[in-house]
Amino acid sequence: MDVEREKRVAAEAAAELVESGMTVGLGTGSTVAYLLPALAKRSLDIVCAATSPRTEHAARELGLRIEDVTSIDRFDITIDGADQIAPDGWLVKGGGGAHSREKIVAGAADRFVVIADSSKPVDALHAPVPLELLSFGLRATLRLVEPAALRDVPHSPDGGVIADYQGAVEDPAALAIQLSTTPGVVAHGLFPPQMVAMAFIGRGESAERIDFGG
Ligand code: 5RP
Question: Does residue 62 fall inside a structural domain?
Fold first, then answer.
């Protein structure tokens, strides 16, 4: 399948950036699922931290060394997927509802590298924008972030409620500020270009590298 091949080549290209001695943040999702064996195959001396139980389990099964993220204050590199990638480097993440943890691990990385198939670049970001919300005051928070809908999925591993902002995304920076400053919003899925070092986009048999300078 073309999409699966594109995910794999993007993940393999990013895995080549990892060197022995590095601390590596591992994202979540079907593209990251290709990253884990690509990393394991290289038999590097690395320490990893995972952004979800699913990634942690898969990484451990492959023999990667996983540490508790609470003991790590910076990462040499974090590699993760994305749902949308705008030309200027803004991202939408959180299709798997893991964006709060993913944002912490991306923000703590010297280099945050995005891996994606060719369906992910978009001309302009659009809804849905994933949200993680506190249970406390949920109805009030939902009213403040209207239009938004609860997602029919389990709570996050941190107890947060997963929802999606469904409105326009004309100005991602303004929307990011609005969502970040809304009481009850734990995290939103808008990731700014300043956070993103580069992206590898699978295109057919090879991966296109785009540098964003973050
Ligand atoms: C999970 C994410 C994923 O990285 C994003 O949804 C992309 O997933 P996939 O690689 O399966 O397309 O943000 O919260």
Answer: yes
5, 31, 200, best to mutate for ligand 1 pocket (most atoms within 8 Å of CB): 31
Interval 154-186: pLDDT, tens: 999 999 999 999 999 999 999 999 999 999 999
Beta carbons of 184 and 137 less than 8 angstroms apart: yes
From ligand 1's centre to the CA of 136, what distance in Å?
27
Same domain flag for 83 and 143: no
Nearest to 113 by CA among 88, 95, 89, 96: 89
Domain identity same for 103 and 84:
yes
Rounded Cα distance between 67 and 69, Å, is 6
**Mean pLDDT (the chain, rounded):** 97
**What is the residue range of 153's domain?**
129-189
**Residue 190 Cα, ligand 1 centroid: separation in angstroms?**
13
User: Do the strands 75-80 and 148-150 form a parallel or antiparallel pair, or are they unpaired?
Assistant: unpaired
> Is 107 in the same domain as 46?
yes
CATH code of residue 156: 3.30.70.260
Please state the pTM of the whole predicted model: 0.98
Contact 214, 196 (CB under 8 A): yes
Name the residue at shortest CA distance from atom 10 of ligand 1.
31
Structural domain contains residue 44:
yes
- Tally of domains within the chain: 2
Q: How confident is the model at residue 201 (pLDDT cuts 50, 70, 90)?
A: very high
pLDDT bucket at 78, cuts 50 / 70 / 90: very high
